[in-house]
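Hi R.,

As promised on Friday, here is the backbone we talked about, encoded as structure tokens. Could you run it through your design pipeline when you get a chance and send me back a sequence?
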């Protein structure tokens, strides 16, 4: 996906001295090849309210993976799909992403959210 001219801009940006190496190092630092060979560690569930957003044109991540992320969330979980966006959601659909985030962080609540009384300090 992306907008007209994005690819040219990315190529110009990555052509700057050190920019491509810096961009690749971000991915290198995330997960080492050795980590892919080790058995997976069990991670604790996420108890915080969580919003998963996936772009229908994403060529890097599959929708099934994002949609199934809810099984790791014990708090309120909400999944949204944006049709006209790819991997870089804030670039491809900034208005829709902002609307989803503001709603999620503001007053909207998932229908299945458990209401717990607040503790007074």
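Update: got your reply. Pasting your designed sequence below so it's all in one thread:
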């Amino acid at each position: 996906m992306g907008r007209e001219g994005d690819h040219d801009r990315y190529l110009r940006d990555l052509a700057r001295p050190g920019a491509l190496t810096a961009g690749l190092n971000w991915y290198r630092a995330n997960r080492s090849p050795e980590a892919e060979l080790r058995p997976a560690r069990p991670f604790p569930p996420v108890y915080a309210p969580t919003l998963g957003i996936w772009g229908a044109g994403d060529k890097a991540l599959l929708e099934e993976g994002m949609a199934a992320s809810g099984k790791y969330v014990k708090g309120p979980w909400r999944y949204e799909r944006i049709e006209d966006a790819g991997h870089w959601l804030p670039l491809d659909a900034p208005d829709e992403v902002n609307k989803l985030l503001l709603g999620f962080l503001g007053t909207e609540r998932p229908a299945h959210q458990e209401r717990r009384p607040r503790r007074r300090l």
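One thing I noticed while checking it: The first strand starts at residue 50 and ends at 55.

Thanks again,
M.
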